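Consider a typical record:
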Amino acid sequence: MKQMTEHSTQLVAKLWNYCNLLRDDGLSYGDYVEQLTYLLFLKMAHERTQAPWSEESRIPAGYDWPSLLDKDGPELEAHYVVLLSELGKEPALLGLIFRKAQNRIQDPAKLKRLIVDLIDSETWLGVDADLKGDAYEGLLEKNASDTKSGAGQYFTPRALIKAMVDCAQPKPGETIEDPACGTGGFLLAAHDYIGDNYDLDRDEKRFIRDQAFHGIEIVDNTARLCAMNLFLHGIGSSDPAATPPIDVRDGLLTEPSAKVDLVLANPPFGTKSSVTLIGADGKESKEKQSVSRPDFWATTSNKQLNFLQHIRSSLKIGGRGAVVLPDNVLFESGAGAIIRDRLLQDCSVHTMLRLPTGIFYAQGVKANVLFFERRAASSEPSTKELWVYDFRTNEHFTLKTKAMKRSDLDGFVEAFKPGSSLDEREESERFKRWTYEELAARDGFNLDIWADVKDESLTDADSLPAPEVIAEEIVEHLAAALEQFEAVAAELRGNGAEADESPASDEEAAAELLTAADPDA
């Protein structure tokens, strides 16, 4: 357990108090974290020019931290705007942090207080990385819970991330990637896991800092928050001119330039991609931009199916993947069936965790975690058996009244038996083994499969959750159904319709929608 000194506790409280002060002026959590990112980065870069570090400044003269301290009022506000613009033109980490940066603090007096009272009064390089990082993570989570900001789509529940990392067991010397990294939760959890479980030598520590982690994020502001989050946790070089561990781009547009040992990811929810990806089948859907990905098995505009193909391509032989995927990936026909077939052939898809509803900030999400390992080419299917852990039936969580904790996933992690062979696993009501032959016998390699948990609410009214939980679950179900109907409506309008993915009949389409809305129905 991390211990916090009295000074550290006061510092965290100070961060929160300034956040509340600025929120009174209409600044959102996201705006506050954004401005804090710019100012903290400049102050820490300045501290490196002072004793005992005494490094040469990498920030252009006139746009550094001291340039903010001797100005007040409108002059300070005007200079801050110019500073943000100029630093955004710089290369490497400096340019990433300040890319398209804007001043959101309209009151120069409050900007001055933030600079002088909060940031300048502390020596941030002397504050423990865990403290700085944890405080920043706390602000990011607050931002994610602010539904008006829409930031929740970039934030995976930390309890789930930690459980996935505990099962994946990242090791020193491995390369670890997240192709849709959001604010960096998976990369940070892997970093912490290695630090907590291994006694690292100097070379291993340098590799962990400079080479082990790589993320891709398409949204500028989210990439900025991720880069700063990693920076505060000691990931990536402290040199502002260094190449950052985060790339700002669409990770689906190009084949991976380097293979990695481990991919941890929660690709963005939603079925439609902004571009069309042409797979090895040569087909494309009718969208504005087409990208050829010969490493893809099939063409689809479903983002999660494309991310699944991309992640498989990103892995070395023997590389491991742990990926959050929505239910539609398990049963979607056409390209979905082709992709599932090839995934089972090329990878050992050994474990699926069926997640409960009510754990994501985005409503209507029914999701799963798929664990797999890429194998060398073979005439035999790489998947021999798939173990399914049902953590959805009889489990009820909400973000407000009953948030999921890491301890809630202890049963799954224990059943997974990290580091052990599949032969050592034991079947239970929640954990069921499916053979490859049983999977292949299902139409379209449909993986919408379960263990043997009985729904207690069907036989025992006393087992029903509290009314407020039921109400939130109804909202989740309706939101999921609405999303599916909107997708079908778009298909019928001809927006990116894919002939190979159309159901054979209206009855089948309706059945697929009902299954998506409630697979237990």
Summary: Residues 269 and 382 are 28 Å apart (CA to CA). The longest helix spans residues 467-492. The radius of gyration is 24 Å.
